[in-house]
Every structure is written in structure tokens, then in C-alpha cells.
Automatic annotation (TrEMBL):
Classification via Gene3D superfamilies: C2 domain (2.60.40.150), EF-hand (1.10.238.10), Phosphatidylinositol (PI) phosphodiesterase (3.20.20.190), Pleckstrin-homology domain (PH domain)/Phosphotyrosine-binding domain (PTB) (2.30.29.30)
PANTHER family: INACTIVE PHOSPHOLIPASE C-LIKE PROTEIN 2 (PTHR10336:SF84), PHOSPHOINOSITIDE-SPECIFIC PHOSPHOLIPASE C FAMILY PROTEIN (PTHR10336)
Alphabetic keyword roster: Cytoplasm, Hydrolase, Lipid degradation, Lipid metabolism, Phosphoprotein, Transducer
Biased segments, Basic and acidic residues type: 1271-1286
PROSITE patterns hit by this protein: C2, PH_DOMAIN, PIPLC_X_DOMAIN, PIPLC_Y_DOMAIN
A GO MF label: phosphatidylinositol-4,5-bisphosphate phospholipase C activity
Reaction equations catalysed: a 1,2-diacyl-sn-glycero-3-phospho-(1D-myo-inositol-4,5-bisphosphate) + H2O = 1D-myo-inositol 1,4,5-trisphosphate + a 1,2-diacyl-sn-glycerol + H(+)
Enzyme Commission number, as recorded: 3.1.4.11
Organism name: Collichthys lucidus
Name of the protein in question: Phosphoinositide phospholipase C
Domain PI-PLC Y-box: 650-766
Main localization, broad class: cytoplasm
Upper lineage: Eukaryota, Metazoa, Chordata, Craniata, Vertebrata
InterPro entries: C2_dom, C2_domain_sf, EF-hand-dom_pair, PH-like_dom_sf, PH_domain, PI-PLC_fam, PLC-like_Pdiesterase_TIM-brl, PLC_EF-hand-like
Length: 1295
């Protein structure tokens, strides 16, 4: 639809060749091309006050005095049925035309009728797809409003006027007086179409037609108790068409002493907002509503704009030129286009028959009001302003806590926000936030959708290198395709500045004894190796201080390898990581330990090589690509892997990332060292992920895996990194030069953790004893699914897609919301298309997604232009799920190549329910009902190993109790939310705020108060209660009772689950220790002997000595100086001589070292005290971590052997090990869920406390009770039992 004037009329069409200067990218204004009389380049004949006359009609549609079509219901602009039919039948099919804008003027022009071939392929004769789908002409429908099926691409050929912009309460009241057609919902699943309107005296609400008498088909405004938004009454919930009704279009009027509900559905969310806002004003001010609005409306805005106008009026003539007015509006709202501002001033002058080009203060304020007031923000503003035209500190505090998820917001913090964002001096002095200040705040960085905590390094960077995803680039030197594209050092600069931590160097012999970089066997250009190293040295740690991996594909002769070595040593110096891996380490060092280091990944000679060079297998991706191309062209050519000579000097530079060939998973599990790295072709990696999803995940728990694109991607297209991240692959190399969805995912994913290039993988992919399959299409065991609720509210300043010229400046945007993650999480939803509005399109559509593995999920917002030829890309933004901020947020859109589009935003609301594990407890860590169904309990898998199965059976009862505790609490909270008239995304503070009007009597005296003296606040009646409030008290008491039961019982249930987990490990043979916590050194020694003797005998044969048995796996380990003196004293005292007296001296030393390591491990697992002296505390955390990892690997061996003894083999043996890890994962997950439920309850109790104080509903009342109640509240909150260290009771034995 076209742009319209303030009164809702459409500007006239002008088909003359009148040119309107466009907004120059270089900053030129229209003033530079204005005419001599001060005009900004828009001629007077472009502006008029008429309306469009449809073809074939002398007068067209009748018009009223205010230029509004008679076929529309006044200012609400909703067409009446008769008008729709007349308009539709009056338009012959041959006259149906496509709407578009002139490329120069930007105004709507009629195009020639479309060819029948096109007309037959689009739904153009349906009047208007959006309008048609919302209207039915049957007075009664049992299945509710007619619902459109999955939205497909649509094209609108309608030129009907848009609805008038609503930007104040008076606009809402006027629209209600004019009336709207709404759907009346009944509990019997019937839906009636009725026309609702407000009486002119604003005393009653009426509807027609009705079987009732006219005096009965109305509701007195005085009887209205509350107006609820959404489907939050029993009538809606029990209606058979519940799922077909839009949450954003539904609202309910609660009226009468019995709190009856009138449940209504509007055709659009905007119409629903108009009625909700207007009714709430009427409830507050009654017949004096308009007087109140007029007395306070826009005073702060007018004074602020008046001051700005006076500053611009340097001549004190009380008027300024249009050019100056345009620039002033543009300065206040940079996203507006100059041409639109100019046109608005011209329309205003034309309407007033005003000559000249000067703008008065009143005209400036009026144009600003029309152009810069966003209705969607206004509707949100009035919800929290207590029906005032401003937010005070208390209102803002409620908004920040209840909606934005901020914790412990005080009025002082609210005042700081006001001082920062309120533009008017009056608001700053009085502590009031106007609509413009509120808009400034919502568009600020504080309301960015990306969590600011993630803008810096916030994850644990002391985990092994294999526990992180690493931002990686493929053939970094290329800036175009893989076969003929140019090579350039800018590829490295771009990648390193974007946080890339793994770049590729394909090095070949060059001229003048200087190695060069390019893709071999192709026609790509060459760059000198030395210049690349210089650039890498300069930019290596600009974006991140954590280690950089250089993937070196060396194809040089020995002579030029020596040159490579000299360049690397001279330029990088001590940045190169030269320390070899420690034999006792089971895992790679952490990124924290490798800060500022450069790791070389490449081929390495064997340790027994003493010559200056040796032979290794060549790595040549270029040869593989060339081979593929020759096969496709029928030139059968096989390039076999070849050997080449490797310089020992260059080999010695490779320490922690030795390139080795991957054979299969069993071989790797048995032989591969942690510092060895395998590279997987994309196709082979996909096959591994499909055929061996569990093994691939387990492989990546210890080893680094690099995946590079298929050689068939000659065009440098990208693979989907999520396909390999879900398997745990750390290094997924991307073609940075190719933008698109795949690079959007890569850039978006590594945006978290300070964009440092390292992202900690999900815990379930790091723990040694855990079950996860990369191809899971269901919920993940041990991980609670979370529900993501996203409402797409509006957009701002969508540009015309690049390269699009078919529709001129017309933009018909719609939004896709995509979820990327494991297969069970992948989903997408789209909004409707908003026709011909790229400036401020309103979508108002809500979506819900279930996220089964939040730590690996991403949300992507994509805006497209709906075109019948092909939808075109406008912008996108991709964000990890864990970085989403709840509340009302703005999303900055980015172009196809990743640049931020200036002033181009999406306005959304985000809510996350059942947020557990890695989430923030104060940010909507709430529960949501999953529907009426039988309760599901976690179950244990059978291993067919009796001793272990018997242990797991004992877990069934505590698991059932844990589920009951959580579900009972969650169900009670959901029931309370429903009674408060709120949806599942609300928190308890919002519930108390919504309930507060009902708890207050006629003289503002509370009927019910919260007694905050106890840690569990209870409701106390202050007199006789109506039945509705009695139900509230009963439901609230159930919330408190289930919460109290959970806090008091969860500790015991939690401990029983952990004990079952420990017992399962014992039964599986991981640690055959006594059940009590008393253990002697000799018991530990015997246990260690029994476990290690079998391993030693299997490797070295029978009859090994006791000492050699002890030091098996611990051979050569340096346990540090901390135990030496103690060892000597113990040996001299003869305490440890007997077990070791028959062994050689060196074996004794090694055995004692291993013995001490085991004692420390046992002490940690069983909470043994005083087995070792205090000097053990000097041992570093890394040593303990090393022992924990080693113990986890030993466990797998022991369980395997125990299963073999039970007669299991083949598939049953594999299934037994898998079932054990599954059960352990379930136990850990259920224990974590119970722990998080405790945190949830504690957060809920705090919210009740704070809400009661905010609403003055605490015992003692608002006078004197505030400080006293608050201090008592703080004390009672501190008294809430917490078990923050409960998880410490479960040691790392299960990891």
C-alpha cells in the first residue's frame, strides 16, 4: 500500500515526470537541490487532498469530509461488509492492476494490466489476501474464524488506503467510537461476528446485531474490572478453536461482580491494541478520559520540540525553512528518509492551502508526531504508565524487572535510565520518562537482543583444547573460487579480524627460492609465503589473545623448507608453541595456557628419527579436487597419495597438532595420541556422522577433528557447520569469502564468548561418561527442553533489496524465524507479508519453538521482500540461543556480506520458559504447562549385567519423587498464572502486579495482604472475600505449599540420586572400594593392584612384579616436589617398605608416585580425610583434572571387561556400555533439574516478596510498613535454604 497522510487519505497520483531527489548515500540533503523559494525539491503539484478514483467510476468511492472512504468505519478504517462486496464487484477483472512505485518519485503509479498468464498464477482476484482471509459472512461459525493455511508467497494488487496510525489514547477512543468488527468467542466453540462500538458519551460498550434487546447488548464501562490480553480466560482455554486463534489478536473484558468475561478476537493485533488501550483508559478515568488526555497530552514532547525549534530559528521569526525542518527531524530520527519528511510537510501545507515553504513550530511538532511516533511502542508504553502520558521511576522499575528480566532494580537505577534517555528537561527534572525517552531506551544498546555478558570472554577457558569449537577458515588466501580465483593476503586480514583461530597455508616451491602460497593443481594466483607470515604476525592476536592454529600444507622441496623454517622462526619468534606434550597428560593444554601462542598443524617425523630429514605422507587437498574434476570430465586420472621429504627443523615446530590419517574409530580409540589431529573431508565426515554418531561424539571428547569442504565445492560454497558441530567436531573450516546462510551461522555462533574464536562445547559432549547421539531427533537425555517464545512486533527502515528494480522503491517485507541446532531443534516460521511498507511494517505475530539442546541452538531472523518473481534478501541476524536477552528487544539486521544495515531493525519480544542449565535464573527461569497428559517419569535402560542393573533399579523411586516435586510445583504455578489472567511466559512478579487491582478495595485499602515475616509469604484476608478471591488464595496457597515441599524434600532426593550414581560406578568395577568412607592405605593399594595388574598382564604377560603393576599407566609421571619429603620419611619409617621391598629401586619410585596419585584420587571421591598430609593442597588443579580424565578412561575398560565376564559380546556388549552411559546421563540430568528447580523456587519467592512491596500489599500497608517490611523481607529471603554446594557432593568420578 502507498504512503498516506495524517488523516488516512491517500495522496493523489501524479503521472507527470516530476523528480524527487533521493537520499544520497554520500550525505547530500535535499536542501542542496532545492528550488529558490526554499522548497526542498518537491513541486506543489505533487501534493493534493483528493482520493484515488477507481477506473470505470465517475466519482469512485464516496468520501466523507475528512477524506476517509465511506466504505470504511471511520478512523478505525475497517471496511464494512457491504462496502467490501460493492468494491469487489465494482472492479472488473480487466482493471485489476499491480501496485508499484515510480523509481524516481517513490509515489504509487498504476501499471498496465498484467498478462493473463501471470494473473492466473497468483491469487489476485481475492480482493486482498490479507483482508479476505480475516472476513467471513456467516453470522456464526462453529470452527472459529477462517484460518489461512501455511502462508505462501502472496501478491497484493490492492491500492486501498492503510489504516490511520494510532499514536495516542485519544486516537484509540475515537476509533472505538467509530467501531470495529470483532469476533465474539463462546465456550461452546462457537464464534459470532459482531460490530462493537463505544457510545459517544463513553459510558457503555455495545455490539450488534444481537438477539438480545438493545439495552442488554451492552456493558457499562463502570462495571469493567479488567482488560486482559491474549487467550487467558477459561472460555478461550476450553474453546475448541484455541490453537486457531492468534494470541496477539485476542483480548478479554472482565466485568461485573462475578467477574464474567467477554472474549473477543480482532482481525489484527493493532485493532486489539486499540481496544485494550482505550478500555484501560476508560476504566481509570471514565467519562473524563478525553479531558485528562487533552490536559496532559504531549506536554513534555511539545516543550522539548519547541526548544529545539527555537534553537533552529536563529532569526527568531517563529518559522524555519522546510530544509531546516527536514534536517531537524532527520537528526532526531536518522532512519527516516528525507523524501518522506519533505512530502509530509508539503502535504500539510497543501491541506491548509498554505503558500510558501516556511514551517511553523506547530507544524514541525505535528509532522514529528506523525512520523516519529511508533504505535507499537506507544501501546507498550501505556501498559506500564498507569494510564499516564509518562513513566515515573516506579513504573519504569516494574517494566525493567517484570519485562526486561533485570534483577534487583531500584528507583535509583530507574532514575539513571531516565536521566540518560529522556530528551526533555522537564522529564529529567521530575524523573519522568516520556514516550520519546522510552523509545530512545528501547532502541539503545541496553535493549539489544544480544546479551552484553557475551560480548567479553565469559566461558571457562581452562578446559582442554578439544573441548572447544574453534573458528576456522579454509584456503584462507583465496578471495573467490577454488579453481581460478585470485589469492591475496587480505583473506588472512579479514579472517583474523573476524576472530578466526585456524587459518590455512598451502605452501609450494616458488621462484628465487621463496616459497609461495596457492592451491596446487589449479589456476589460482600465488602470493609469497613471507608476506603472508608477516600479515599473520601482525594480526594474529588483534581480535583474540587465544592460540592461533596454522594449518600448514607443505609441498616444498627441502631447500625451500629451510627457507620456510627461517621465516617462521625469525618472524614469529617465541610465539610458536615449541614445548612438547607431556607424556602424563591425557588431554591437550587449555586455550588459557596457550595464550599468545601459534600452533603449527602439519606432518611430523617420528621421535626416533635422528637424520636432518625424513619421509612422510603428503597432504594435498588441491590434488584431490583436481582428481574429482578430471573424473567428472571423463578423464580417468588417479592421483595416488605420495611421499615427500620433510625437514626435521620444520617437523620440530609441530608439537600439539600433528597431522595423522584417520582409519576408523576403534583404531583411533586405541592408538591415537591426544596431540594428533585428523582432517576429515566433508563427505566422509557426513558419513561418519550418519553411520557412527555416538562414536564420532566420543572421539571428539579427546581428539581434535578438522572438517574441510568437499573438493566438489569449486565455487567456494560452504557446508553447514551445524552438521559437524552436533558431532563435536571442533575445527569446521569455512570459505570466508562466500557469504550466505552457512557463513551467517558461523559468524553468529562465534559472536558469543567475546568473539574470541573459542566456544565451549555443550557439557554432554565433554563429559567422559555421558550419552549423546549426533542424530537425535528427540529430547536429549538429562537435558530439560526449553521453550522459546518469539513475537515479531515490527520492523524499521527496511531498504530496498540490492539489485532489485522491478518494483521501484516498493518493499513488501516478511520475516522468517529459523532455529538451527540438532535435528530435533531445527524449525522455521514466517510472518505474513506487509504490503508496500518498508518504513515501519507491523507484523505482531508470535511463534514458539522447543529447544532440546539449548547449548547448541541458534536463532536466525531473516527479512525478505515478497515478490511474485522471486523473494529477495533484505537482511538477517543470527544469534546463539544462550545469548538471547528476554524482554522487548531490537535486532540489528545485517546485509548479505555481514555489514550492519544502518537504522534497520526488527522489534521483537523474547521469552524463555523452562530455562535451566546454562541460563540465568532471574531471566524467566520459569515453567510452562506442556498440556494435559499423563506424567512421564525417567526410566533406566537394562544392561543385562545383574550387579549393575540392580543398582540402577534403586534409582527409580528417587527419580519418580524428583519428577513429582518438580511437576507439582510447576503445575501449581501455571494454575496461578491462569487465574491471574497471564500466559505461561509471565513470571510471578507479573502475576502479583496483574492481581493487585483485584486485591485493592474501593478506598485503595488492600483486601488481601502478603505476610512477609516468614520465608514463605502467605496471603492474609483483611475481611470477607468474594468467591473469585477465595479461589486466588487457594491457588496461591498451593504454589507456596508445593514450593515448600520441594525445598524441604529435594535435598534428600538429590542425595539418593547421587548415591545411586556412585554405586553404579562401583558396581561397574570403576573403583572397588568399601561402601563406608573409611579406608586404609593398604586397602587402596590392594584395589590399585587388582585393577592395574590385569592391564599390565594383558600388555606385558603374566608374572609382572607388584611395583611394575602399580606403575602401569603411571610410568614416568612426575608427581612434583610436594610429596618427596613425605615419601622419604614414610619409607625410612618402614611403613611402605613391605609392599615394595621386592621391587627394583626405580620401579619403587614410579610405584610410589602412582600410589600417591591414587590416594589423592580416592580421597577426592570418597571424602576421605587425613590420608595424605596437608602438603597435598599444593598440587595444582591441572593434576587433579588429569587424574579425573584418566579415571574416566579406565572406567570404560573395566565396564567392558565386566560385560565380557557376563557373557555379553558383539552388539549386546556395545549396547550394555551405551545403556550405562545413558543411565548415568539420566541420573546426572535429573539431579541437575532438581537442583535448578530449587533455584527456581528461591527466585519465585524473591519475586513475590519484591512484588508485594512494590504494590504496597505487604502486611503493615504502605505507611511505615515499607521499610520495615522490606528489611524483614530481605532477612526472610536470606533465610531461604540454599544448597549451592550440593553438587560438590558428587565428585568428578562420573565425568
Amino acid at each position: 500500500m502507498a504512503e498516506f497522510g495524517d488523516d488516512g487519505s491517500q495522496p493523489p497520483l501524479n503521472l507527470e515526470d516530476t523528480t524527487v531527489p533521493s537520499d544520497g548515500a554520500a550525505g547530500k540533503t535535499h536542501c542542496e537541490v532545492s528550488v529558490l523559494n526554499g522548497d526542498c525539491g518537491i513541486s506543489e503539484n505533487m501534493v493534493g487532498s483528493g482520493s484515488i478514483v477507481p477506473p470505470g467510476s465517475q466519482d469512485g468511492m464516496e468520501t466523507s469530509a475528512n477524506n476517509t472512504s465511506v466504505g470504511l468505519d471511520g478512523k478505525s478504517e475497517i471496511p464494512r461488509r457491504s462496502s467490501i462486496i460493492k468494491l469487489f464487484l465494482a472492479q472488473p477483472p480487466s482493471m485489476v492492476t499491480a501496485s508499484g512505485r515510480d523509481n524516481v518519485t517513490g509515489l504509487v503509479k498504476r501499471k498496465m494490466p498484467l498478462p493473463l498468464s501471470i494473473m492466473s498464477s497468483v491469487p489476485m482476484l481475492k480482493l486482498n489476501d490479507e483482508l479476505h482471509s480475516g472476513w467471513t459472512f456467516s453470522p456464526k461459525e462453529k470452527d472459529g474464524s477462517r484460518q489461512r493455511k501455511e502462508r505462501k508467497k502472496t501478491v497484493s494488487f490492492s491500492s486501498m488506503p492503510t489504516e490511520k496510525k494510532i499514536s495516542s489514547a485519544s486516537d484509540c477512543i475515537s476509533a472505538m467510537v467509530d467501531g470495529s468488527e470483532l469476533k465474539k468467542v463462546r465456550s461452546n466453540s462457537r464464534i459470532y461476528h459482531r460490530y462493537f462500538l463505544l457510545d459517544a458519551d463513553m459510558q457503555s460498550l455495545r455490539w450488534e446485531p444481537s438477539k438480545k434487546e438493545s439495552e442488554k447488548a451492552k456493558i457499562d464501562v463502570k462495571s469493567i474490572k479488567e482488560v486482559r490480553t491474549g487467550k487467558n480466560t477459561d472460555t478461550f482455554r476450553t474453546n475448541g478453536t484455541y490453537d486457531q486463534i492468534s494470541e496477539d489478536c485476542a483480548f478479554s473484558i472482565i466485568f461485573g461482580e462475578n467477574y464474567e468475561s467477554l472474549d473477543l478476537v480482532a482481525n489484527t493485533a493493532d485493532v486489539a491494541n486499540i481496544w485494550v488501550t482505550g478500555l484501560r483508559y476508560l476504566i481509570s478515568y471514565g467519562k473524563h478520559t478525553l479531558n485528562m488526555i487533552e490536559s496532559s497530552q504531549n506536554n513534555m514532547r511539545s516543550s522539548w520540540l519547541g526548544e529545539l525549534f527555537d534553537e533552529a530559528d536563529i532569526n527568531s521569526s517563529k518559522q524555519i525553512t522546510i530544509c531546516a525542518a527536514v534536517q531537524l527531524v532527520k537528526k532526531l530520527n536518522p532512519g527516516l528518509k528525507n523524501v518522506k519528511i519533505e512530502l509530509k510537510f508539503k502535504e500539510l501545507h497543501k491541506a491548509k492551502d498554505k503558500a510558501g515553504s516556511e514551517v511553523t513550530k506547530e507544524e514541525f511538532i505535528e509532522v514529528f508526531h506523525d512520523l516519529c511516533t511508533r504505535p507499537e511502542i506507544y501501546f507498550l508504553f501505556v501498559q506500564f504508565s498507569s494510564n499516564k502520558e509518562f513513566l515515573d521511576t516506579k513504573d519504569l522499575m516494574i517494566f525493567l524487572e517484570a519485562e526486561q528480566g533485570m534483577a534487583q532494580v531500584s528507583e535509583d537505577i530507574s532514575l539513571e535510565v531516565i536521566q540518560k534517555y529522556e530528551p526533555s528537561k522537564e522529564g529529567q527534572l521530575k524523573g519522568w520518562l516520556s514516550l520519546d525517552g522510552f523509545t530512545n531506551y528501547l532502541m539503545s544498546a541496553e535493549c539489544h537482543i544480544f546479551d552484553p555478558e557475551q560480548k567479553t570472554v565469559c566461558q571457562d577457558m581452562k578446559q582442554p583444547l578439544s573441548h572447544y569449537y574453534i573458528n576456522a577458515s579454509h584456503n584462507t588466501y583465496l578471495i573467490e573460487d577454488q579453481f581460478r580465483g585470485p589469492s591475496d593476503v587480505t583473506g588472512y586480514i579479514r579472517a583474523l579480524k573476524m576472530g578466526c583461530r585456524s587459518v590455512e597455508l598451502d605452501v609450494w616451491d616458488g621462484h628465487d627460492n621463496e616459497p609461495v602460497i596457492y592451491t596446487g593443481h589449479t589456476m589460482t594466483s600465488q602470493i609469497v609465503f613471507r608476506s603472508v607470515i608477516d600479515v599473520i604476525n601482525k594480526y594474529a592476536f588483534v581480535a583474540s589473545e587465544f592460540p592461533l592454529i596454522l594449518c600448514l600444507e607443505n609441498h616444498c622441496s627441502l631447500k625451500q623448507q629451510r627457507v620456510m623454517f627461517q621465516h617462521l622462526k625469525k618472524i614469529f619468534g617465541d610465539k610458536i608453541q615449541l614445548d612438547p606434550p607431556k607424556p602424563e597428560d591425557c588431554y591437550l593444554p587449555s586455550p588459557f595456557e596457550l595464550k599468545g601462542k601459534i600452533l603449527l598443524k602439519g606432518k611430523k617425523l617420528s621421535t626416533n628419527c635422528t637424520a636432518s630429514e625424513g619421509e612422510v605422507t603428503d597432504e594435498d587437498e588441491g590434488a584431490e579436487m583436481s582428481q574429482r574434476m578430471s573424473i567428472e570430465s571423463a578423464e580417468q586420472q588417479t592421483i595416488a597419495p605420495k611421499k615427500f621429504q620433510l625437514s626435521k627443523d620444520l617437523s620440530d615446530l609441530v608439537t600439539l597438532c600433528k597431522s595423522v590419517e584417520f582409519k576408523d574409530f576403534p583404531t583411533s580409540f586405541q592408538n591415537q595420541k591426544q596431540w594428533e589431529l585428523c582432517s576429515f573431508n566433508e563427505v566422509f565426515a557426513s558419513r561418519c556422522a550418519s553411520d557412527f554418531p555416538g562414536d564420532f561424539v566420543n572421539y571428539n571428547k579427546k581428539f581434535l577433528a578438522r572438517v574441510y569442504p568437499s573438493p566438489m565445492r569449486i565455487d567456494s560454497s560452504n557446508m553447514n557447520p551445524q552438521d559437524f558441530w552436533k558431532c563435536g567436531c571442533q575445527i569446521v573450516a569455512m570459505n570466508y569469502q562466500t557469504p550466505g546462510l552457512m557463513m551467517d551461522l558461523n559468524i553468529g555462533w562465534f559472536r558469543q564468548n567475546g568473539n574470541c574464536g573459542y566456544v565451549l562445547r555443550p557439557a554432554i559432549m565433554r563429559e567422559q561418561v555421558s550419552y549423546f547421539s549426533a542424530n537425535t531427533k528427540d529430547s536429549v537425555p538429562g537435558v530439560s527442553p526449553q521453550l522459546l517464545h518469539i513475537k515479531i512486533i515490527s520492523g524499521q527502515n527496511f531498504p530496498k533489496p540490492k539489485g532489485s528494480g522491478a518494483k521501484g522503491d516498493v518493499v513488501d517485507p516478511y520475516v522468517y524465524v529459523e532455529i538451527h541446532g540438532i535435528p530435533a531443534d531445527c524449525a522455521e516460521q514466517r510472518t505474513k507479508t506487509v504490503n508496500q511498507n518498508g518504513d515501519n511494517p507491523l507484523f505482531d505475530e508470535s511463534f514458539e519453538f522447543q529447544i532440546n539442546l539449548p547449548e547448541l541452538a541458534m536463532a536466525r531472523f531473516v527479512v525478505l521482500d515478497d515478490d511474485y518473481i522471486g523473494d529477495e534478501f533484505i537482511g538477517q541476524y543470527t544469534i546463539p540461543f544462550e545469548c538471547l536477552q528476554p524482554g522487548f528487544r531490537h535486532v540489528p539486521l545485517q546485509s548479505l556480506t555481514g555489514e550492519v544495515l544502518p537504522h534497520t531493525l526488527l522489534f521483537v519480544h523474547v521469552a524463555i520458559t523452562n530455562r535451566r542449565g546454562g541460563g540465568k535464573p532471574h531471566k524467566r527461569g520459569l515453567s510452562v504447562r506442556k498440556g494435559k497428559r499423563s506424567r512421564e517419569y525417567a526410566s533406566m535402560r537394562v544392561l543385562l549385567i545383574k550387579a549393575v542393573d540392580d543398582v540402577f533399579k534403586t534409582a527409580l523411586l528417587p527419580l519418580r519423587e524428583a519428577t513429582d516435586l518438580r511437576e507439582n510445583m510447576q503445575n501449581a504455578i501455571v494454575s496461578f498464572k491462569e487465574l491471574c489472567g497471564l500466559s505461561a511466559v509471565a513470571n510471578l512478579k507479573q502475576c502479583i502486579l496483574a492481581l493487585s487491582p483485584r486485591l485493592t478495595g474501593p478506598e485503595s485499602s488492600p483486601i488481601l495482604v502478603f505476610n512477609l515475616s516468614d520465608q514463605y509469604p502467605n496471603l492474609e484476608p483483611q475481611g470477607l472475600l468474594p468467591e473469585v478471591l477465595k479461589k486466588v488464595v487457594t491457588t496461591y496457597d498451593m504454589v507456596i505449599q508445593t514450593s515448600k515441599t520441594l525445598l524441604e524434600s529435594s535435598e534428600g532426593v538429590y542425595d539418593r540420586i547421587l548415591q545411586t550414581q556412585k554405586a553404579a560406578f562401583r558396581a561397574a568395577g570403576r573403583l572397588n572400594l568399601p561402601q563406608n568412607n573409611k579406608i586404609s592405605a593398604e586397602d587402596v593399594l590392594k584395589c590399585h593392584v587388582n585393577k592395574r595388574r590385569w592391564c599390565a598382564e594383558r600388555s606385558c604377560g603374566k608374572g609382572v612384579s607388584l611395583a611394575c603393576t602399580l606403575c602401569f599407566h603411571d610410568n614416568g609421571t612426575n608427581r612434583g616436589r610436594w610429596g618427596r619429603h613425605w615419601l622419604i620419611s614414610e619409607l625410612e619409617a618402614g611403613k611402605l617398605v613391605r609392599p615394595l621391598q621386592e621391587s627394583p629401586v626405580h620401579a619403587v619410585c614410579y610405584a610410589v608416585m602412582g600410589f600417591l596419585s591414587l590416594l589423592l584420587h580416592c580421597k577426592k571421591q570418597l571424602n576421605i580425610k587425613h590420608v595424605l598430609p596437608q602438603t597435598q593442597s599444593c598440587r595444582g588443579e591441572k593434576e587433579e583434572e588429569r587424574e579425573r580424565k584418566r579415571g574416566a578412561m579406565e572406567f570404560h575398560e573395566n565396564l567392558h571387561d565386566l560385560a565380557v565376564k557376563e557373557g555379553l559380546k558383539g552388539r549386546k556388549l556395545h549396547k550394555a556400555v551405551e545403556s550405562f552411559t545413558w543411565n548415568i546421563t539420566i541420573l546426572k540430568g535429573q539431579a541437575d533439574l532438581l537442583k535448578h528447580a530449587r533455584s527456581e523456587v528461591q527466585e519465585n519467592l524473591k519475586q513475590i516478596h519484591y512484588a508485594a512491596l512494590t504494590c504496597n500489599l505487604s502486611k503493615g500497608g504502605p505507611t511505615g510498613g515499607s521499610s520495615g517490611s522490606e528489611s524483614k523481607s530481605r532477612r526472610s529471603l536470606e533465610a531461604i535454604p540454599e544448597k549451592a554446594t550440593a553438587e560438590e557432593e558428587l565428585t568428578d568420578e562420573d565425568n
